[in-house]
């Protein structure tokens, strides 16, 4: 009776000759299989997409996470700022006990909700511009959409404060979005810096 490592095993030799797998231990192919297991894919796709569907989430799908995340970040930053201002104000006023605790909660809630509202409003405007630009460009979503949407968001958010502040808001949006785009594409930029046309 032949073992799995027997070099005279007809199934092992046939399997090795067909699949090209050679080694110290010959793989065993069952006589009941009518196909070579070596042809089976070893890795399966992590996700399954519909035919013709995009393999990444679009602007509209990302908008919900961006708006919610912006609100939570704004609430956290505003709450921390309100806590600091509340501590300073209650200390100067000489408040203690329950009165001081109530004042601290008021400061935290007021500042946190105001900052969360600001961050959420900016995120809604930015997401709306991003979705419109992506739709207008036929589903294209790239860094140009990000920069244009951020610049337009800054201009629109400060549009009621005058022309000067409107331009300042647009400049801030342009600067932040450009810095973000450069950070995301830092690998490509490093490749461009190392590119030498003389080596081609």
TrEMBL record:
Which keywords fit this entry according to its UniProt record? Answer: Membrane, Transmembrane, Transmembrane helix
Note the topology in the membrane.
Multi-pass membrane protein
Superkingdom, according to UniProt? Eukaryota
Biased composition range(s): Low complexity:
1-19
Region Disordered, as annotated, extends over 1-21
Q: Does the keyword Nucleotide-binding apply?
A: no
The residue range of the signal peptide is: none
TM stretches of this protein: 114-136, 167-184
* MF (Gene Ontology): protein transmembrane transporter activity
Task: From the UniProt record, list the coiled-coil ranges.
Answer: none
- An example Pfam family from this entry, by short name, is Tim17
User: What's in the GO CC field?
Assistant: TIM23 mitochondrial import inner membrane translocase complex
Which GO biological process entries does UniProt record here? protein import into mitochondrial matrix
Localization, per the record, is: Membrane
Q: What is this protein called?
A: Mitochondrial import inner membrane translocase subunit Tim23
């Amino acid at each position: 009776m032949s073992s799995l490592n027997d070099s005279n095993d007809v199934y092992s030799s046939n399997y090795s000759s067909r699949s090209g797998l050679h080694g110290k231990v010959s793989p065993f192919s069952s006589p009941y299989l009518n196909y070579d297991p070596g042809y089976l894919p070893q890795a399966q796709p992590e996700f399954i997409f519909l035919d013709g569907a995009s393999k990444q989430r679009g602007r509209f799908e990302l908008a919900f996470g961006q708006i919610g995340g912006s609100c939570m970040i704004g609430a956290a930053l505003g709450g921390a700022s309100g806590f600091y201002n509340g501590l300073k104000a209650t200390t100067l006023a000489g408040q203690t006990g329950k009165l001081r605790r109530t004042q601290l909660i008021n400061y935290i809630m007021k500042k946190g909700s105001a900052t969360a509202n600001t961050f959420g409003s900016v995120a809604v405007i930015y997401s709306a511009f991003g979705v419109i630009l992506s739709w207008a460009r036929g589903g294209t979503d790239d860094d140009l959409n990000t920069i244009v949407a951020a610049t337009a968001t800054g201009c629109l958010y400060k549009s009621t404060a005058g022309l000067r502040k409107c331009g300042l808001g647009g400049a801030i949006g342009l600067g932040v979005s450009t810095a973000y785009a450069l950070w995301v594409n830092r690998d490509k930029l490093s490749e461009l810096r190392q590119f030498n046309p003389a080596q081609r």
